[in-house]
Amino acid sequence: MSMLTPPGLKGKQYRISGKAYPRLARPGQKRRRVFQVIGAVVALALIGWGTVQLVTVFGSKKKPTAAADGHCVRPATARAAGDAAKPSASPDASASASGPAASGSASAGASASAAPSLMALPAGVPQPSTFTVNVYNATNHAGLAGQTAKLLAQRGFKIGKVANAPAPLEGKVTGTAQVMGANASKAAMQLVGSEVSGASTAMDTRTDGTVDLVIGNGFTALQSPAQAAQALTLAVNPSPTAGARC
After folding, report:
1. Helix 144-154 and helix 100-113: axis angle, to 10°?
2. Contact present, 220 and 79 (Cβ < 8 Å)
3. pLDDT higher than threshold 70 for residue 140
């Protein structure tokens, strides 16, 4: 022992004592542990991201998409005749009397008292005071032509003949009304037809610009001015037909 001890130093300073011996780590073991920790963190992050994606895909509710990129158009329709506004003025006794003479006197008085006013109409549609409307009653309800003619006159229409319908049309108009006129009076016919919900149109061979309004069995009342304006807009500029999936 004395030969292994450096000179001038005591041997006790180099004596190994205790039960534990120092362990030497293998080269690169610390680097391997760092990589393992990083890999575990990345794996946990990927698992969490995948879970969020699965919840988003299978847990979210699908929202219906509008046809044609949201440009699905449904044309507005006028209310039924039963929902039309009530007449603003009640007809007098002379207007409710049957026969061409009584109805004519009622319409003449209504036309004289109503001052035609300019209305905001679509392009190409004439003012109601610029053409003549003949009102005929094809039903069994007495005085219906006179009442309707009076209300039309209050809305600015120029009233012509007010009488019972001609024999070929008597009791033959099953709908609300039928509007008749020449092909050149199509815009005027659209204006008159907009006053009655569900009115049909028919062209004839007349050469003047008059328009006939023949009241049918399904007629109840004129539409309100707002409803008539909406119906006229749809008649002049019909909306595109909505798709089947709208």
Report:
1. 10
2. no
3. yes
